[in-house]
Amino acid sequence: MHYRYQRAYSGPVEAVIFDWTGTLVDYGARAPVNACIRLFQQQGIELADDEIRAAAPLMFGNSLAPRHHAPYCDDISLAAILNSPRVRENWQRQTGSPATEDDLVRLYQALAPLLIDAMAERTQLIPGALPTLHYLESRGIGVGCNCNYGRDMAADLFGRAAEQGCTPDSIVCVSDVHAGSPWPQMTLKNLLQLDVKHLAACIRVDDSVVGIEEGLNAGVWTVAVALTGSAVGLDMPAWSALKNDRRAGLREQAYSQLNRSGAHYVIDSVADLPQVIEDIEARLEDGERP
């Protein structure tokens, strides 16, 4: 007879790795979108939110946007925006010729200061973030953060978050690793810095599909945030101004999109994370793994 023995971790959660924009700060994940809108307005082109968000996951691994063009931001692929039919047509009408590689480099260089300004406007912690961080601290659970901006660019964000009481134990920026999401390098580097011993005891929280893919690739539990990030894309005043039926419809769409990403859990916001942690710990005790 043949036997196979498997070992399963059954202890408590050891670490949670958060995204920043749309997860802990910047309700609606507006900063990169606002920066892009301003950038293309300077070129005489008006962009819609969905044209920008459609390009968000394409920064790395996209042959149209080599990494050397923008080592400081993993949230936006200007190449994908430029290659969308409407923008391509408007660019040619404004400039008299198709966009070139030189144009792409110039746009990325112009985007950097706009992103810094946009981030400075959107550093407020999302409601429920601080109580959740306090819960993690009280449980002795390590807190890491992945940042899709270069460290120099994000320094002001980290400082303003700290002033509000958000002081992660570890922060890894896209400039600290070879490749950003969906590759698992930022999450794994955070876990190394947190001295985590069991991947099955770790959770990755993000508002985007590509961030959830990163967590899955790292082999950890994944929790998608539906209402405060890019899946809905509205800041708090805009969201609050909607009628209940419209909010319900957007919530349903966001949950559907993020469930398709393969996330183990989808929640409204980080305020709901403590209940998820308790459920994960019950599943770990039963021998489940992510």
Descriptive report:
The chain has 290 residues and is α/β, with parallel strands linked by helices. It folds into two domains: 15-30 and 123-285, HAD superfamily/HAD-like (Rossmann fold, 3-Layer(aba) Sandwich), CATH 3.40.50.1000; 32-120, Putative phosphatase, domain 2 (DNA polymerase, domain 1). It is built from twelve helices and six strands. The protein has a six-stranded parallel β-sheet, sandwiched between helices. Strand 4 (202-206), helix 9 (209-218) and strand 5 (221-225) form a beta-alpha-beta unit. Helix 1 (31-41) crosses helix 5 and helix 5 (101-120) runs parallel beside helix 7. The longest helix is centred in the middle third of the chain and has 20 residues, at 101-120. It is globular and about 75 Å long. Residues 58-75 have low confidence and may be disordered.
What's the SSE pattern? Answer: EHHHHHHEHEHEHEHHEH
Distance between the termini: 30 Å
- Return the average pLDDT rounded to an integer: 89
Class based on secondary structure composition and strand pairing: alpha/beta
What is the number of independent domains? 2
CATH H-level superfamily title of the largest domain:
HAD superfamily/HAD-like
Q: Please identify, by name, the CATH architecture of the largest domain.
A: 3-Layer(aba) Sandwich
CATH class of the largest domain: Alpha Beta
Q: Count of DSSP E strands?
A: 6
Strand content: 5-15%
Low-confidence stretches: 58-75
Task: Determine the number of helices (DSSP H or I, runs of at least 4 residues).
Answer: 12
User: Going across the major beta sheet, what is the strand order?
Assistant: 3-2-1-4-5-6
Query: Judging from the principal axes of the Cα atoms, what is the shape?
Result: globular
Enter the CATH topology name of the largest domain: Rossmann fold
How large is the radius of gyration? Answer: 20 Å
- Characterize the largest beta sheet: strand count, sense, and whether it forms a barrel: 6 strands, parallel
| Helix residue percentage | 40-55%
